[in-house]
Amino acid sequence: MFQRWFEIYVPILQGPGTCDHNAAERVINIVTSLPFFALGWQAYRQAKSDESRLWGASIMGVGAGAVAFHASSGDARHWGRKLDYWVISLSTAALTRAVYPKVSAHKTAASLLLTPMQPLAVTSLNAAAMELEFLKQARKNTKLRNAHRVHMATTVLGAGCFVLEDFMPTLPLIHSVWHGLSAVALQTTNALVADADRRRLQATAEGV
Questions:
Q1: Rounded to 5 degrees, what angle do the CA atoms 16, 20, 25 make?
Q2: Which domains does the chain carry?
Q3: Which of 69, 100, 103, 179 could cross-link 32 (Cys pair, CB 3.0–4.6 Å)?
Q4: pLDDT value of residue 16
Q5: Cα–Cα distance for residue pair 96/130, rounded to 1 Å
Q6: Contact 181, 164 (CB under 8 A)
Q7: Which long-range contacts (CB under 8 A, 24 or more apart) does 99-104 make?
Q8: Secondary structure of 27-56 in HEC code, one letter for each residue
Q9: d(CA 19, CA 68)
Q10: In this structure, what DSSP letter does residue 165 have?
Q11: What percent of the chain has pLDDT over 70?
């Protein structure tokens, strides 16, 4: 099993992806990419800082990357898959800046520089940092706890779908299910970003 995992994830982005086996599945995957535009717009509109506005814009970029990937075919599909991974990686870098306003520019630059070569690693590290902050803030703020519970459930299920798709590539619609779970996880992440904005504004008002 470890060898199979190594073969899948170490030589990353070597092929066109395993989803979109037929026209119907391709259409469903495109349709289930559309909620990312709505979630990004929601985050952008509720933003109270440049960092959270960038986060909102980046989610819309994730939607655009997903649509481009699932709509592509032939030689373009290889690059469509790369674009899909890249925009997700960049969005997690934007998320880190929104959640950790004091994060150093060097860490953000490292995420940007590593994205073309190791987007999955960048995504994983930034997502892990966000998960730790979400847990920390949910323990402090009871208003975030329900959002955090939903977030954790959908994140775990989504990660399971992500891995399952590689181990069972012919399983129908697993990618679109991952889209749906990811959209719910992002919706709850917006609650954390909004809370980070609130705390940032409060600190500014108090002169901290």
A1: 170
A2: 22-205 (1.20.1070)
A3: 179
A4: 55
A5: 6
A6: no
A7: 99/129, 99/130, 99/133, 99/134, 99/192, 99/193, 99/196, 100/129, 100/133, 101/49, 101/51, 101/196, 101/200
A8: HHHHHCCCHHHHHHHHHHHHCCCHHHHHHH
A9: 14
A10: H
A11: 91
User: Hunting for tokens 């599945």 — which residue is that?
Assistant: 25
Write down the mean pLDDT value for the chain.
89
CA 133, CA 35: separation in Å to the nearest integer?
Answer: 25
CB atoms within 10 A of CB 23: 8
pLDDT at residue 9 greater than cutoff 70: no
Give me the half-sphere count of Cα atoms (radius 13 Å) on the Cβ side of residue 36.
Answer: 27
CA distances from 142 to 14, 31, 149, 185, 190 (A): 44, 34, 11, 18, 16
Residue 25: C-alpha distances to residues 37, 171, 206 (Å): 20, 11, 53
pLDDT score recorded for residue 43: 95
- Would the pTM of this model clear 0.85, i.e. be above it? yes
For the stretch 57-90, pLDDT in tens is 999 999 999 999 999 998 899 899 999 999 999 9
- pLDDT band for position 5 (50/70/90)? very low
Percent helix, percent strand, percent coil in the chain, to nearest 5: 80, 0, 20
Position of tokens 């991974």? 85
Q: At what angle do helices 174-205 and 23-31 cross, to 10 degrees?
A: 10
**107, 119, 127, 166, 206 from 99: Cα distances, Å:** 14, 20, 11, 31, 19
Top pLDDT among 184 and 113 is at 184
